[in-house]
Design goal:
- The protein is an alpha/beta fold and 278 residues long.
- It contains ten helices and 17 strands.
- The protein folds into two domains: 121 residues, HAD superfamily/HAD-like (Rossmann fold), CATH 3.40.50; 114 residues, HAD superfamily/HAD-like (Rossmann fold, 3-Layer(aba) Sandwich), CATH 3.40.50.
- 33% of the residues lie in helices and 23% in strands.
- The chain has a six-stranded parallel β-sheet with strand order 5-4-1-15-16-17, with helices on both faces. Strands 7-6-10-11-14 form a five-stranded parallel β-sheet, with helices on both faces. A two-stranded antiparallel sheet has the order 2-3.
- It binds magnesium ion.
- The site of magnesium ion has 8 residues, from loops.
Amino acid sequence: MLLLVDLDGTVWRGRTAVPGIPELLAERAAAGDVVAYVTNNSTRHRADYMPRLAAIGAPADISLVVTSARATAVHVAALQPRVDRVLAVGTPGLVAELREVGLTVVSAGEAAEVVTDGAYRVTAAGDPQAVVVGLDRGFDYGRLAIASACIRAGALFFATNRDPVFPTEYGFVPGAGSIVAAVEVASGVAAISVGKPGPLLLEVAADAAGLPLDEAVVIGDSLQTDIPAAHAAGVASVLLLTGVTTIEHLDDLPEAQHPTAVARDAGELRTVLARLAG
Ligand SMILES: [Mg+2]
């Protein structure tokens, strides 16, 4: 099987590993499963995850760490007709992922020039063919105006993900989806989102593993992202109750949107995976 495993709330919570999960994943890998990680996080280069996965004893192969930044880069680089120049609204991690697949990343300064207060004109020198928006902690009016100007001038519009917020130890903070929404409103164009709950992130991960999606099982803790992504991609899913979801959340959900199976912890996940494999 190809295990497409979410990270936050599934493999770890904050700085701590979810008990038993790294060991179980290592066990499944030793038995022949391929373990890939699929996270909506758009801020880091995937190499940043390697030491952390290794430290908790989870199987880790950099080609199988598929963040929404990596998946968006791979997806955009494969477009036909070809896209060469991209304006990135995001972190250095996102820019690094876009460059690594051969895309030229145009800065906001290159993409547009100030014409008058608050108005920007897309420059011939920059002229990106696509705009990629992820979580950008330095987002401001100028970046909003420039990204929107490029999209209005005809650039394709991709979002790494639409997570509206994400949890920190101090409470919820705005996620990439908040920034994507601002650019959608300002440009009048709906983004194509690569992250979960859409299927694209899972498709890129299966490609990276060289396995068909029908051998995949999504393992995650979110009924907003992981399980609907599995449904969108047409693959089996296991909801882990180790993160943001409790069993009561399933009561409010139509049967067609339920996961294939539910596991309270690593022990139950072991049983469920053995059943799905058989
Ligand atoms: Mg999660």
